[in-house]
Amino acid sequence: MPFSTPFAPTSQELGSCVECGLCLPACPTFRMTGLETASPRGRLTAMSAVLAGRPIDAAFEEMMNGCLQCKACETVCPAFVPFGRVMEGAKAEIAVARNSLPSRLRRLILGKGLASRSVVKLATAAAAVLQKTGTAFLIPKGLRPGFRGLRPLSIWSSSRVGQSSPPLGEDEASGRGTVGLLVGCVTDPWFGSVNEAATRLLNKAGYVVITPADQSCCGALAAHDGAAKDASRLAAQNAGAFEAMDTLVVTSAGCSAHMKQYGHWTEGGEYIAKKVHDITELVADAIGKGWLPTMAETLEPVAIQDPCHLRHAQRIVDEPRRVVQAAGFKPIEIDPVGTCCGAAGVYSVLQPESSNRLGVQKADQVRAAGPTTVASANPGCEMQLRQHLGEDYRIVHPIELYAEAIGILGRADQ
Ligand code: SF4
Ligand code: SF4
Fold first, then answer.
1. Total structural domains in the chain?
2. Whole domain around residue 293: which residue ranges?
3. Interval between CA 30 and ligand 2 midpoint (Å)
4. Cβ(213) to ligand 1 under 6 A?
5. pTM higher than 0.85
6. In this structure, are residues 197 and 400 in contact, taking their beta carbons and an 8 Å threshold?
7. 248 sits in which H/E element
8. Is residue 295 part of a domain?
9. Most Cβ neighbours (<10 Å): which of 151, 288, 324, 404?
10. Is 196 domain-assigned?
11. Which of 12, 102, 109, 26 lies closest to 68, judged by CA?
12. In this structure, is residue 336 part of a structural domain?
């Protein structure tokens, strides 16, 4: 069966590849295997073959599932091939053409389960009990590595949804506008202090922060795994929830990257996409304008890990470094090209061997650089780093480090 859904890669998108091969050295899966079929160019060629009428078979599915969707190929592509978009289209096609029971269940969890606060709350409570009782051996083997990367969870997790908080102190009347905060599906219960830091920092910078009650999961994981209809539905829901906001801020790099692509996912989605900012952008901007303070410099080093969805998908590189520096720390580079850490949404579950190799490589980069604190702006990367670095390392969002340094957040990640 060739392509059949409205999400399919188009001939225009695929035809924009000039087959130069410049993306090959940037691609982690090509570097690990040396195989053209595990490269961006090879994957595009396979998609073009399906577009020309070749059926979607097991080999095609395997090629596409091997991709991390890290977009490192987009960063170096001279022809601006929208690789992330076409890969999401290919995944939507695979979901229709090769609809096995395990993949259907997975998409049900990603497309519907994550969008349900009750389901996420229940799963969080169960995971917290396993953490507290030391019974992680009860969970399926494939989920155990990710489980090790979690922060300590609370059985009774609270939510920031449906709240509004005013500017703080002298900035109370500054009228810098209203920022809508996407709390995220798992960021809310699992990384609550990141959302707490974002709210307090934006309030201190003079913004009103609102978390609309009718928001939902951003849909990134659904989109990456081919649950395209669910991804469209979630994009439409969030577009409605945040329509009245001046600005929309997101604390997970994977989610902010996806929401900047809402134009592809829902009618009129460009309107919301233009308002989306990753939190590192807004905090760095507020520091630059003097709305937030800059602390005295220390020599304490902090390693910077660039999430692919910050560095490659949004081309945000300087902002996390500026935030860490303004917190008084010395940002330390670990990887000049930003190779994927191997977390990549559900990739660590689907492709554990490749994910593990990349996780070990990233942990080695951190160890070689020296610092025992790592700043990472994406929950999935944070979990992957913690899993591979162990308890002697602290992995934390750059804005948490900054909020702690200026005294508006206690240490909440451990
Ligand atoms: S995706 Fe871009 S960089 Fe890679 S082969 Fe095609 S045109 Fe060249
Ligand atoms: S998205 Fe990442 S893993 Fe996939 S082809 Fe591009 S560089 Fe390779």
1. 2
2. 288-405
3. 8
4. no
5. yes
6. yes
7. strand 247-250
8. yes
9. 324
10. no
11. 26
12. yes
Atom of ligand 2 nearest to the CA of 74: 6
| Type and span of the H or E element at 325 | helix 318-326
Find out whether the beta carbon of 248 lies less than 6 Å from any atom of ligand 1.
Answer: no
Q: From atom 7 of ligand 2, which residue's Cα is the shortest distance away?
A: 27
How many other CB atoms are found less than 10 A from the CB of residue 18? Answer: 12
For residue 177, the SS3 value is coil
Question: For residue 46, what is the domain's CATH number?
Answer: 1.10.1060.10
Of 99, 127, 157, the domain-final residue: 99
Residue recorded with tokens 């920031």: 160
